[in-house]
Fold:
Amino acid sequence: MTTRFENGIVVTLGEKNRVMWNAAVVVEGERIAAVGDAAEMKRRFPEAESVDCSGKVVLPGFICTHHHFYSTMARGMSIPGEPASNFVETLERLWWKVDMALDEEDITLSAQLPLIDCIRNGTTTVIDHHASPSLRDGSLDLIEKAVRQAGLRASLCYEVSDRNVMGGGVAENKRFIQKVGKGDHQIAAMMGMHASFTMSDATIEECVGIARDAGVGCHIHVAEDAADREDSLAKYKVPTVERLNKLGATGKKSIFVHCVHIDEAEMDTLVETGTTVVHNPESNMNNAVGVTPLLKLLKKGVLVGLGTDGMGSDMLVQMRCAYLLHRLANRDPRVAFVEAPTLLLWNNPAIAERQFGVKLGEIGEGLPADLAIIDYEPPTPLSEANFLGHLIFGLVDATVDTTVCKGKILMKDKQILSMDEARIAARSREVAPEMWKRLQAL
Ligand SMILES: [Zn+2]
Structure:
């Protein structure tokens, strides 16, 4: 099956970003067969099916490098007890109860709904971090099934911690990592770990050993709150990144999420080990934990990506949040214009390539056909030279019309094709109150 997505403005991204007006992307199977002038593509591929993209911008599908599908059913829920006054209380009073209350159907629905949201926002690849201690074994299979049904790509892992006996999760990661093996460019696996302050040396060593043997990275929250740093300094006499490095959790395939409370020496360790960091500005602001030293990390040469931490699945909104946050935090209107889009458009693909073994985030001949096609009539000239201005101030508020992943159209004319959105949301509204009831009793 060959399709010409034609007459739109194609933005290729990649190393040499090109902005092409009246262009076409020709998709053959799961890959891009050609990109170029629409009339020429029509001559070369006359038999291909046509999807008209006039009035639209065609971009590579977006990537989210840190998500928590399982947080879906917390939306609108009343949280028992006094409001949390700090980050650790937020975990204890909210998230460690949400994950504990999830049953089998909740896990599936909790994945399906954000996957629909991903399709709606042109996000075609996600690196997720899952927890469901009451139904741990096999939980990653449930999510994998939902991801395949949605038609997206995802790297999955289970969040290991010592916070409760049932929450171990090491075996679930090991089983899933072995099952995925080298992967099929659609599903990948990592070793999921909660955070330094909820894990003993022995647990971390066990996780690292499994990850090393399998050649996968560790996906762990690092120094999200000052409490994680203080715990590491008090118990192990070294800050968080150094502790994790000593235990072998660093490396090119590992993802250290947040890194809000780290010092210069820890940043150097991240550079030396090639460990990637994922920044989640909305989540950090929501939890009031502090501001990641993003500009410093980038200057030192750390590969920093962008995630939502479960706050949502709209990566453009997250990108603009990073842009605004770091301007304000640095009290400097000259910064973050290049840096914030770089996290999303160039660094996230580099991080994803380490997980999926395939080059994503670029429109080019022979590359995977993952596309986000967005309604956008530029009100001023649009070219390579000023694309970031259109991204930050225009495309961020525009609507995604069509989403393509692995060459398959998952949404067209804003209609989700791979999943029954209304039925899934209706069922979730039915079972969520039951889950909330179980949670209140915890
Ligand atoms: Zn997280």
